[in-house]
Amino acid sequence: MINFIITLVLGGVAGWIAGKLMNSEGSTLRNVLLGLGGGVVGDIVLGIVGIHGNGMIGGTIVSVVGACILIWLSKKFLK
């Protein structure tokens, strides 16, 4: 249960950071979803080039990169 809560908090932080980096305003729920989805996307995309994030900081960085990709894609296709 505590791991789930930590994952949500880190996902929210990653989504918030990505939103600030990409100048995207959104709700807290959207930021959490972007951070969680960004973790999956970032792991796949960065894994292809051989980069992996270990620990909380590495996982957060990978999530931020993935969330930035998701924000970029949403801006590109949902105009």
Characterization of this structure:
There is one protein chain. With 79 residues, the chain is mainly alpha-helical. The chain has a domain at 28-71. It contains three helices and no strands. Helix 1 (2-21) crosses helix 3 (55-77) and helix 2 (28-48) crosses helix 3 (55-77). The longest helix has 23 residues, at 55-77. The termini are far apart. The mean pLDDT is 86.
SSE order and pairing:
Elements: H1 2-21, H2 28-48, H3 55-77
Can you give me a brief rundown of this structure?
This protein has helices at residues 2-21, 28-48, 55-77. It is mainly alpha-helical and 79 residues long.
Give me some keywords for this one.
79 residues, mainly alpha, 3 helices, globular
Helix content: over 70%
Largest sheet composition: none
- Secondary-structure-based class equals mainly alpha
**Rough outline:** globular
Would you tell me the overall average pLDDT? 86
Uncertain segments of ≥5 residues (pLDDT<50)?
none
Number of strands: 0
Our count of helices gives 3
Radius of gyration: 12 Å
Strand % is: under 5%
Distance between termini?
Answer: 38 Å
| String of helices and strands | HHH
